[in-house]
């Protein structure tokens, strides 16, 4: 009986050791049993989003797309309107970091000025995600951008073809402090110089603004009635161009004698309608919805501890009368069928 009791104790001891060892192998040496099921998640994480400015159709589409993607991903997204004002944006970015979010998302008007907000986020260990315009200093976790230089080059090719490779054309520029505008300008000017030596370009600093475009184009048409075409860094400024043409009796539909060729950039719903009506000839399309989805997916992946691309690029697509009704163009997403 004594022998049987001794065997039982030894057997129990061995089994206990085996069970304990198995537990350590499965659960880890120091992790409690409840931690085994813990998986990083994006749900409930807070993101502060400082937008470029909601006065532009393109930006509104981007913000709406980001809001939807964030909601579907379970993120708590708080958005502030940068209003196209770099100084306001800088203050907003600093304030956003003070709220101690889990991530900061910024679409800068002026990348240099936004550096202060980026550095503050870095100091507070807040991950930074950028759209369209990377800061020259500070660390950011991912960037999504449109190939602005390629967009400018596409604009040059399109205008040149429309005007017959000769004559005078206007370039309506975005903000001189904007990296996007500078890249579009560089792409446009470089292509014109290298391929179309018989085209004279007059660049106007219209600052993304339709009212500025109206006044400056009106002056340009008064000084030189023989202007053949216009490339605008965004579709928003084309509104001002149309008003200037109307006032000078130069608003002639496409295909009619005296038509002044207009190429914009963004592919906005209003631009697509103008292409259909014949008052605008083309738009170099971006895709703000795709850009917004890409950056939100990167933020979510970061929260989940998954890999994600640090640099994402959206290529331009030319929109003309031939493809203006394409349902995959973001400018047609809300169009009634």
TrEMBL record:
SUPFAM superfamilies (UniProt xref): Periplasmic binding protein-like I
Give one GO term, molecular function aspect.
carbohydrate binding
Record has Signal as a keyword: yes
Instruction: Give UniProt keywords alphabetically.
Output: Signal
Q: Where is the signal peptide?
A: 1-37
Sequence ranges assigned to domain Periplasmic binding protein in this UniProt record: 57-306
Q: Does the keyword Cell division apply?
A: no
**Where can this protein be found?**
Cell envelope
Example of a GO cellular component annotation carried by this entry: cell envelope
Q: Determine the domain of life of the protein's source.
A: Bacteria
Similarity annotation: Belongs to the bacterial solute-binding protein 2 family.
Name of this protein: Monosaccharide ABC transporter substrate-binding protein, CUT2 family
**Organism field:** Paraburkholderia tuberum
Q: What is the lineage of its organism?
A: Bacteria, Pseudomonadati, Pseudomonadota, Betaproteobacteria, Burkholderiales
